[in-house]
Sequence to fold (273 residues):
Amino acid sequence: MSQKIRDILLLTKFKIALANALTALAGFSLVQNINEKIILVFFGTFFMAGGASAVNQILEKDQDILIPRTKIRPLPSERMTKKGAWIIALAYLITGSIMLALSSLMSFILGLCAFVIYSFVYTFLKKITPLSLFVGAIVGAIPPLIGYFAASQKISNEAFLLSAFMYAYQIPHTLALFYIYNEEFINSDFKTFAYLGREKIRKIIIITLLITLVIGLAFINTIGKILVAPFLIIAIIGFMRTIQNTKKIFSDLNIFVLLVVLSTALVKIAQSM
Fold:
């Protein structure tokens, strides 16, 4: 893979964009009316998320230079120009917007809201208040609804719980970054909860992780009661590992969320056949 392609993937945060696309797919599958729109939803969400990430990095270039973890990104390292980054961002956003608009008007509106909140509201608030964390988490809750409203006109308990689960997940996930890279965030231009120190962050992580797991299990119960027991075991193991070593939460929670999303999509798609 060439360096240019790697830089595009870094600029658009490929893994995060893919994760958002998968949660949108899970939301779509809840309706059990699988059709060609699922392709529009998946790739529309993927490109919108990638475009939003690109705009975010363009706006935060000066701040990223100050953080060792982010200064190797394409823009602060000067492997890519702002003009080039804007071209990529706009290409992603236009493609994603068209795809979501073709899936449903509500999906397009939700995608546009996620873009505005992440690229402008959240990006701005990060510089003035730690509470931006709770605003940014809204963005993670939107993809399941993008998928759901592409196939349905009204919300369901399942869709609400999946969205709530994805919102709750953002909190301990982001706090884990503040815990692991505590000094980097303290010395950055961002206002984060890193100033609380690792011990206080650890306590908040444990509490918010427990809330996230409970919501996740409640959602899994609506998908299939047979799945509750194995997911409960996974949740307990992950929770205990976090208590013993807080750094474990980053990988364990991501795995739990991925399993929830994939199980939802697979079970619902199988039921619709």
